[in-house]
Amino acid sequence: MTKRSVQESVWLAVRHPLETVICALLVGLAAVVFSQVVARYVLETPLSWSEEMARFLLMWLSMLSAAYAFKTKSHFALQILVKQMPARLQHAIRLMVHAIGAAFFAILLYYGVIFVSGVSGHLAPALQMPMEIPYSSIVAGSALILIEILKSAWREIANGPGDPNAGETASRG
Fold first, then answer.
1. Shortest CA distance to 152 belongs to which of 80, 97, 107, 108?
2. In angstroms, how far is CA 39 from the centroid of its own chain?
3. DSSP string computed for 57-117
4. Which residue among 6, 23, 46, 161 is the one 20 to 30 A from 170 at the CA level?
5. For the chain, percent helix, then strand, then coil, each to nearest 5?
């Protein structure tokens, strides 16, 4: 690898931290599951911690991937009826969807914080790590999704009802 490609890779990782963390979690999850398979079936001595670690990595991976999908507008949206309506009504529906989504993730964030504080002092049986670490994925994912919904709602408000690309600011579909 050349010096320039290393610099470009580092720059991309710094510019896109969410994507970098998701990739690292995916690589880590694959490594943990692979090591468990090798230990169990080749060495015939299963690892005591790998299933728990895989579960915790999957929790973080799923919540951060959901946030990434919101960021890139990759979530499924059924817009066949909405696209048949007048522009002002489409705009109002998109704002309502943003408001409902923001309310849902604000509530999930609030109760996620309560839940994480409720598991304070508990340790994972195999890894002996604080349970706040895996369950914080709910808080982090909800916060990131809420931020993306608010950014998208802001763009929707700024674009107004007459923008022909307004449907793409809310979601794809």
1. 97
2. 31
3. HHHHHHHHHHHHHHHTT-S----TTGGGS-HHHHHHHHHHHHHHHHHHHHHHHHHHHHHHH
4. 23
5. 75, 0, 25
Q: Which tokens is 164 given?
A: 């022909």
Q: Which residues of 71-94 are buried (b: 16+ CB within 10 A; e: fewer)?
A: beeeeeeebeebeeeeeeebbebb
8 Å CB contact between 167 and 90: yes
Residue holding tokens 């230990």? 39
The answer to whether the beta carbons of residues 64 and 22 sit under 8 Å apart is yes
* pTM (predicted TM-score): 0.81
pLDDT in tens, the chain (173 residues): 667 777 777 776 677 899 999 999 999 999 999 999 999 999 999 999 999 999 999 999 999 999 999 999 887 777 788 888 888 888 898 999 999 999 999 999 999 999 999 999 999 999 999 999 999 999 999 999 999 999 999 999 998 886 545 444 444 44
Contact 75, 69 (CB under 8 A): yes
